[in-house]
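Incident review: delayed structure delivery

Summary: a single-chain prediction request sat in the queue longer than the usual turnaround. Root cause was a stuck worker, restarted by the on-call engineer. No data loss occurred. The affected request and its eventual output are reproduced below so the record is complete for anyone auditing the incident later.

Affected input:
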Amino acid sequence: MANFTQRVSEMLHSPKTQEMINKVKSQATKPENKAKITNFADKFRNKGGGSPPSNSGPSY
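Output delivered after worker restart:
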């Protein structure tokens, strides 16, 4: 298992990975992308995308 963790650690510290992380961070700080992320998170949590299910009991 040490081999696996060592390989993951090497990957996380590689220059290419650091470059990708910096790209993602720069994109995530843009206001239009923050709004998209927030909207997606709200829909995912079922807070903003549609009406919640009704709890009025069974309909016969």
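Verification: The helical segments are 2-12, 15-28, 31-44.
Action items: add queue-age alerting; document worker restart procedure.
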